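User: If only I could read backbone structure tokens as easily as an amino acid sequence. Those tokens are not coordinates but codes from a learned vocabulary of shapes. Could you go through the record with me and say what the backbone is doing? Here is the record:
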Amino acid sequence: MKKPRIMIAATASGSGKTTITCGLLTALKQRGLKPCSFKCGPDYIDPMYHRNVLGIESGNLDTFFTEDEVTRWIYGKEYTGDISVIEGVMGLFDGVRGVEEIGSSYDLARALNCPIILVVNSKGAGKSVVATLKGFIDYDKHKLIKGVILNKTSKSFGQILKPIIEQELGVKYLGSLSDISDINISSRHLGLYLPEEITDIKSQLSLLCKKVEEEIDVDAILEFANGACEDIGKAKAPKQLDTLMNSMQSVNTIKLAVARDEAFCFYYKENLELFESIGIKLCFFSPIKDFHLPTGISGILLGGGYPENHLKELSINNQIKNEIRLAYENGMPIMAECGGFMYLMDEIVDSDNTAYKMVSAINGKATFTGHLVRFGYAIIDDGERKIKGHEFHYYDTDNNGSDCKATKPSSTRSWQCIHKANGGFVGFPHLYYLSNLDFIKNFVEAMKNYGGY
């Protein structure tokens, strides 16, 4: 099957690629097409926009997490509809440590043989934009950059730059977004605000779509996307991965309780679908609103998110806190990442130095630091196997665990992390399961051995 695709990338973070991606996806839907989307890199919030607000299927792709063959399989498996729009991360060539190609938007475009539309924040610049673009195009050894969008440039000045860009650089000028100050998509410390937190976001996206249709050459973008019709995705997982997945299959129904609400919402689609693909039933619950864990469960998954914004509600729900603590003490395997890990501790101390009682399954407290802690990719080693993940948090704890060692890729910097208990892993790192299924197999086997709750 042909899989038309396009990547929206940028010269740097903050250039407007998320805004343009959302506007383009909305425009494609309004044209009667069925787009799907992917986010490059370890990002939870942008895919939530695409799924929850736009109603578009969205997943994560990352060439640091997975090798080319697995990356292409994930892409092919999750591709739906008529066209995929892939949103880049940071600057086009910014990968591991900011200097390596692996993990970059460009490396993903290479792996998928995907044409790139480059977004440039050209506010306050004139012909200097052309020099910037020339550097990016000269650096593009696979000749994937096909078109350019200038953000924060007037339509009239964009038309002046158009012939210079097209004649001197050999790429198509696709238009400019002149002024979107009336469209309020704000930022916060972990990225963009969650979709449900923005007032009247759908009407704002409608305005954005109108501007994209008026100021951007969407027809040309579609032409580039349709030119990338090579079917690179495979229906079946690569052999080694397929063998591991088959070995994890369960004859009996196993239920996994998954915390999902305003406080716990950071999950890779690929991680959840992996559990479902091997026969595990996901039972979603809210540590804020629900008083009981789902019945018949054999494990608990507590993802990251924003528990710090819901500390009062979490702290007063003693019933479910007690059930989670007793489940942990009775040997139930639990996977908890970042915010989920903090929730399992004795208390969380917020930025005002107010302490809130949490589950008390793990001794210690989490405290707001006011700065990013151990930010970025990490390779986590439990002494037998390694898995890839990342950290992104402003809180730290006095008991991060010492059962695994996390190491920065291409670096000697390392730190102890994670509590291993009952076959589960509890700590700050967000894990990408498909980077090493053998690491997750231990948790699945522990659930099989546990039995019903």
